[in-house]
């Protein structure tokens, strides 16, 4: 039986928490920051929990965590 492989693109973008939820960081935070408001840049620093509707698909992409 072949091994189950993790999707490497998903592994670089998402992390699994201790409770089994998936966490990700928002995009658009690396450059051209002068035109973005303070409030927007501050919210881009945070990590967010993945929505319940996308969780099943992510579990298939990352079976090993």
Describe this structure in words.
- This protein is α+β, with helices and mostly antiparallel strands.
- The protein has one domain: Factor Xa Inhibitor.
- Helix content is 35%, strand content 15%.
- It contains 3 helices and 3 strands; from the N terminus they run αββαβα.
- It has a 3-stranded antiparallel β-sheet.
- Strand 1 and strand 2 form a beta hairpin.
Helix amount, in percent? 25-40%
Which regions have little confidence, pLDDT < 50, spanning 5+ residues?
none
CATH architecture: Irregular
Strand content: 15-25%
> Count of helical segments?
3
List SSEs in N-to-C order. Answer: HEEHEH
Over all CA atoms, what is the radius of gyration?
15 Å
Name the average pLDDT: 94
Give a short account of the largest sheet: 3 strands, antiparallel
β-strand number: 3
CATH class category = Few Secondary Structures
CATH fold-level assignment:
Factor Xa Inhibitor
N-to-C span: 20 Å
* Principal-axes shape call: elongated
